[in-house]
Task: structure prediction
Amino acid sequence: MTAITYLFRVDWENDGDYTGTGEDVTGDTLGFRVRIQRGGDPNRPYDPARAGSARFELANSDGSYYPDGGGTPGSNTQPGRPVEMKGDSVLLFTGAVANLRFQPQKNRQSVQVDALDGLADLLTQTVTIGNNAGTTSTLIGDILDEVGWPAGSRDLDSGLTGIGVWWAVNKPALQAIQELTAAEGISARIWIDPDGTFVFRNRHHRIVDTVSTASQGTFVDTTTAPTFTDLDI
Result:
């Protein structure tokens, strides 16, 4: 089995690229402390989507990641910086640094980087939309327009639920979208793709989309598969 080549980058200079000194942090990443999560919140009614998150830890024995350490990236080590994670050149996560946790212990000098994807941005922005009507997807599009989400970074199924009158007054954009997703049906989902695209899937997506109806791969043990006989099923 070929090993996967990973790439971890942080735009510490916040200039729109990852070419600055110290922005490729792959060499400092402690590989056994990497995590990416997406999905709903099972502790809330209707399992609403929550922001995707990523966590990785960087070795910091030389103190270069301390904001006041005088090294590189030094003072640029701040929340809000864009993050990109890849595996064999395939995007796994894009988002922004949400929190930095420094570990100064002698036997563990590191910094834990916590990042969130674009759904977190929608939670911090409010929308006011009055007396609109349409399908769930149309109204979700109206919300994305209101917060300035790029039209080229959306992938919206056609909503199957029509709403005669809908409005929101100073409501967090993510909350409004979650309510419309719930109105679409229990199987409807929203998420942010690894490339930053906002995705809405209607309540029928699991029975019509190829990704759900066709096998996406086969996984087998590398050893000879065992043979079972005389099974009482």
Observations:
- The first helix runs from residue 119 to 124.
- The first strand starts at residue 6 and ends at 10.
- The chain has five helices and eleven strands.
